[in-house]
């Protein structure tokens, strides 16, 4: 006899799943309504564990300021670390500062540099990820962990498969990213042929705020600013 899962029958689980659809829809509607009004923004990703006295915190702050000075707002995951630095840079530069917060059992808490009317809360990672991809004019990816890599590779996959329009994906910190990029080239591309050579052009590695802006400006000299799907 098959035991109940967590004390519930499959029918009870199915019923709960059906009702959860309405909560998921609510998160999508709220996100679409609020983010469609904010204008062109760039998302900054990176570790929640980065402390304010670490060099990539300050670098992220400087990158965010520079992005705001060139007319974009900043979207982050709304938490501490690199996310806080991105929102802080936007706030200090007088720009739009958006936080897409996620409920987590550890690490995540709202940072104080998000605009009061631009802080959104999500229970579902996949809904939150859609918001990043739909409303970002570029991804700036600082050193981070699994969550950062998840956002990075999802964006690369969606662009590679033409599910969304192409936008700049900029990896900041060659000391952190060069090993990964080299592995992608030598293992995925050269040894196993699991990607194509043009796929290597979907990301660029830089070290300074000026290089980030140069890539963004060059891209949008050619393409229009708009939601990605």
TrEMBL record:
GO CC annotations, alphabetized: cytosol
Keyword Cell cycle appears in the UniProt entry: no
Enzyme class: hydrolase
Gene3D superfamilies, A to Z: 3.40.50.450
GO BP: cytokinin biosynthetic process
UniProt EC number: 3.2.2.n1
Reaction catalyzed: AMP + H2O = D-ribose 5-phosphate + adenine
One MF term in the entry's GO annotations: AMP nucleosidase activity
Keywords recorded for this protein, A-Z: Cytokinin biosynthesis, Hydrolase
NCBIfam families (alphabetical): Rossman fold protein, TIGR00730 family
Entry similarity comment: Belongs to the LOG family.
Name recorded for this polypeptide: Cytokinin riboside 5'-monophosphate phosphoribohydrolase
